[in-house]
Design a protein that fits this description.
By secondary structure, the protein is an alpha+beta fold. It has two helices and seven strands, in the order ββααβββββ. The protein has a single domain (about 5-85), classed as Ubiquitin-like (UB roll) (Roll), CATH 3.10.20.30.
Length: about 90
């Protein structure tokens, strides 16, 4: 069994159009590194240095990882990671 990562539309060109991909690792950081071996550039779009990019929200089983341990958040087989870009703005 693997960890499912749900990919937002804006990042799907990096996954060949896939809505979800699978990977493995003991932490979110390891999972993203694993995914980057098959979907080059994905990690760079989500991580800036040693932290998640400011306008990217990542959820582990519906919990925001920023309130857990960020990139150090432990993950395990059967978990679901959801990546959501932050959306703001609008017109009057």
């Amino acid at each position: 069994m693997a960890i499912e990562v749900r990919i937002p539309t804006i990042l799907r060109p990096l996954t060949g159009g896939a809505k979800a991909v699978e990977g493995s690792g003991g932490t979110l950081d390891e999972l993203l590194a694993d995914l980057d071996t098959r979907h080059s550039g994905l990690r760079a779009r989500l991580v800036d240095g040693a932290a998640l990019r400011r306008f990217v929200n990542v959820y582990l089983n519906d919990e925001d990882v920023r309130f857990l341990d960020g990139l150090g958040t432990e993950v395990k087989d059967g978990d679901t990671i959801t990546v959501l870009p932050a959306v703001a703005g609008g017109a009057r």
